[in-house]
Amino acid sequence: GPVTRGLLRPSPRTRRRGGTAHAGNSQQLVTAPSDSYSRTIGNYSYRMVVQYDGTAYRGWQIQQSGFPSIQGAIEHALWTRLREHREKLKIGAAGRTDRGVHAHAQVVQFYSDHEDLGEADTLYGINRLLPRDVRVLKLMRTAPDFNVTISPTNK
């Protein structure tokens, strides 16, 4: 069928069980090209403090193989809540964890074109969309020069 901008579709590796297609956690954001759509990052920087049990994940970074990742879970929740393309969100973390590793207070940065997210409502909405083993503890707008990879004073 036609590709619809902003629609989540199962990845090509979708398995069939009992006549129903299941993609599990392996979903991709499919977008149609548009002259009016900019793929630049959002105008405002936000910081989240994230806690997770990494047992069921293949680490922080999104996997090309479609295996579940922490970044993928957070990206999906943010996209669903904010309705902004993944390139615009440009999610990054202060550090990346390996398969099965947990985090108690990992700092994650993302961008948005929303100047005021209403942090409390957005925090609640994101957590409702995340799996139970991933939680956003804090959400705040950052200074324009904040950079999650070089601004931390310790890890």
TrEMBL record:
Enzyme class label: isomerase
Entry keyword set: Isomerase, tRNA processing
Pfam family, one: PseudoU_synth_1
Start-end of Low complexity biased regions: 1-11
Gene Ontology annotations of biological process type: tRNA pseudouridine synthesis
Domain named Pseudouridine synthase I TruA alpha/beta: residues: 49-116
Record GO terms (molecular function): RNA binding; tRNA pseudouridine(38-40) synthase activity
Reactions the enzyme catalyzes: uridine(38/39/40) in tRNA = pseudouridine(38/39/40) in tRNA
UniProt keyword annotation of Cell inner membrane present: no
InterPro entries hit by this protein: PsdUridine_synth_cat_dom_sf (IPR020103), PsdUridine_synth_TruA (IPR001406), PsdUridine_synth_TruA_a/b_dom (IPR020097), TruA/RsuA/RluB/E/F_N (IPR020094)
EC assignment: 5.4.99.12
Comp. bias (Polar residues): 23-34
Stretch list, region Disordered: 1-34
Family: Belongs to the tRNA pseudouridine synthase TruA family.
Record-given protein name: tRNA pseudouridine synthase
